[in-house]
Amino acid sequence: MFNPRPGQLEVSEYTHGRMGITAVPGSGKTHTLSFLAAKLIASDLLEDDQEILVVTLVNSAANNFTARISEFLKTYGLIPGIGYRVRTLHGLAYDIVREQPHLAGLDNQFSIADERASNDILALTAANWMRLNNEILTSYSPDEILPSDIKKYWGQLIQSIASSYIRLAKDSQLTPTDLKELINNSKVNYDLLNMGNHIYTEYQRSLQDRGAVDFNDLIRLAYSILINNPDFLSRLQSRWPIILEDEAQDSSRIQEKMLALLSSRQNNWVRVGDPNQAIFETFTTADPDLLRDFVRRTDVHAVNLPHSGRSTKSIIDLANFLILWTKNEHPVKQLRHALDKPLIIPTPKDDPQPNPYNKPDDIFFFNRALKPQEEIETVARSAKKWIRANPGKTAAILVPRNYRGSKIVEELARLNTPCVELLSTSKATRDAASVLRDILRFFASPNVRRNLLNAFNSIAAILYDNDEYKDGLIHIRQQLNKETRPEKIFTQPDGVNYLLNMSDFNEIEKTIINTIFMIFISWQRSILLPIDEMIITIGSDIFHNPSDLALSHKIAMVLKKSLDYYPEWQLPDFCEELDAITQNKYRMYGFSEEDTGFDPDLHKGKIVVSTMHKAKGLEWDRVYLMSVNNYNFPSALEIDSYYSEKWFVRDQRNLEAETLERLSSLANGEITDVQLSINNATQKARIDYCAERLRLLYVGITRAREELIFTWNTGRKNDCVEALPLQKLREYWDNNYDRQQ
Fold first, then answer.
1. Rg (Cα) of the chain, in Å, rounded?
2. Sign of CA dihedral 537, 541, 546, 547
3. C-alpha dihedral, 104 to 106 to 109 to 113, nearest 10°
4. Are 396 and 703 within 8 A, CB to CB?
5. pTM for this model (two decimals)
6. pLDDT score for 317
C-alpha cells in the first residue's frame, strides 16, 4: 500500500482545480501520480463515460503508468483498464486527429511519417537545395574553404537548420505559405530564412504526396481541430474531466496550449515535472519556463516533492551545491536561472525507501588532465575491476555524446567486460559497418596498400578467428605490406599466383590466400550492381550469423536511401557513410537495443554505457560521468568553444540559431535589424546551451545511488580544460568532506 510523504499526501488529496508539482529526482512522482489517478477513479467524481486522462512524454513512461494504475485499482477492488486513458502527447494528438481527420483536411487513410522517414525526405530536399545554391554556402564559408570540398558537412548542417526551422514553424502554427508572406512583407533579405522556407515547402509537398503527416503535424493539427470545432472540443472535455500531465518541463508551447484547451471547461489540470531536468531544448521546442510560469500562477496550487530516497546524502549534497552555486555564484549572471530550488531532501527515517548509507569514498574526482584515449582506458579499467568485485550491483558509464560511448564499449570489449548499450547504434552494427567499409574502400582505391591490408584483416578476422591461423595470418600480412602494387593481387585473375610466389607459404597459409582471393574475385562483378545489392552480396559471403546477416541487409537499405538523396555518390562516398555508422554519429533506427522500459536492475554485473540524455529517469549503484570538460559543458566564458559553431562557418557564427531567431521574430510580428539579430542569436544560443548543459550535469549526478566518479579529458586538440562547474563541485567536496581523494 502507498504510504505517502508529506508532499505526496498533499498531491493525493487533490480533487479539482489546477495543481503544479515540482518533483526532484527520485521523489516518486510516477508512483504518486498513479496513486492519484486510481484514487480519483475510485471516487464518485467520474460519470460512467468519463476517464482520467494521463499524458506523458514517451511510450515507456506510458506503459509504466498503465501498470502502476492497474495495481492501485486492484487495491480498491476495481477492474484495471477502465476509467482512465494513458497516452503520450503525440499519441493523444493522433487520437484526436484520427477521430476527425476530415476536420484537419486529411483522408481517412492518412499515415504517419516516423522520424526516419521524415529525415529521409528532409535529407533529399536539403540536398536538392544545396545543388542549386552553392554560392550562398560560399558566402558563409572561410575564404580558404570551398563548400564543394566539404559537401557532407554542409549537408548535415543544412538538414539540421531545416529540421529546426520546420519544427519551430509548426509549433508556431505557420504554414510555408504563411511564412512566405511574412518574409516578403518584412522586406528583410536573409538567405537562410528563405532556404528554410523553401525546404519546408518541398518537405510538406513530399508528405502530402505520400498522404502522410509527421509528428509535429499531429500536435499542430490536433490543436487546430480543437480550436476550430467547439462541439468536438466540448465532447472531449466531457470525456476527460481531469488531466494529469507528467514530465511537463519538456512540453512545448503548442502542447501546453492543447492541454490547456482540453482542460478549460472544468480547469482540472495537474502538471508535474522538474525544470532542473529539462535537457531536450536543443532537440525540441520544449521550454522549461512554461512549467515554471504555470506553477507561479495565482490560480495554481503549487506543491513540491523534495524528498528522495535514491542517493546517499553526500551525492544529494553535491547535487544541491550545484543548484546553489549556479543560482547564486555563477560568474555569468544570465546562467543563474538554469537551476532552481527546491533542493533535494533525504527521506525521513521511517520512510519505506531509505537513502543508501554513505561510504568512505562514494564520490571521487579524477583530478588530472587525461588525454581522450587515456580517459577511456582509465574508466574502463576501473569499471571492470568494480563490477567484478560487485556482481550483484548495477553500474553505468554516462557520456555526453554517442561517439564517446562507442569508444568506451570497444575498450570494455577488449577487456572482456560485459556491457549493455543505450547508444544510437550497437557494437554489432558498428562492427558490421566497419568490415563493409574496409572492403568497399579497397575496391574504391585498390592501389592503396593500406586499403588492401584493412580489407584483408577484416575478412580474415571473421573467417579465421582461431589461434591456429594466427602465425599464418601474420606471415601473409607481412608479405602484403611489402607489395608496391596491391591492386595486382586481388583484382586480377593471376593475382593469387603472384602472391603465392612472393614467399614460401605453408599449406594453411595457401588455403587462406586461395579462399580470400576467390572471394575478392567474385566481388569484382558485384561492383557493377546497385550499392544495396553489392552490400548484400558481400554480406552473404562473409557473415554467417543470422543477426550479422540481418544487419548487413539493414545497412544495405540505409545506403540505398542515401543513393536516393545523392544520386551522384560513388564508392568513396558510401565508404564515408559507413564510417559515420562505425563512429556512432547518428541514430540507425531499428539497430540498437530498445530502451523502452529499460530496467538497470535487470543488468546487474554488467556495465551500462549510455548518453546522459538517455539515462534520464534511470539509476545505478555506481555512475561514471565522463568527459566533463569545457567543450562538453561550457560556461559562456571566453575560453569555451561550442558544438553548434561549426569550424567550416566563418566568424564562429551559429547559423541555426540565427535562422531560428529570425523565424521567431517573424512569428511574433517583430522586424529587427538583421545584423543585431544575428549577433544576439549566437550569444543567446550560447547561454541557452550552457544552461541546458548545467541541467544535464545535474541529471548525471542524480543518476547515482551509492557511488559517483567524475573524469575529464583535454579534447582532440589538447585545448580543453576541466569544466567550471566540475571545478566548483570538486572544490566544494574537498573543502567540506574530510577525506583524501
1. 28
2. negative
3. -90
4. yes
5. 0.82
6. 96
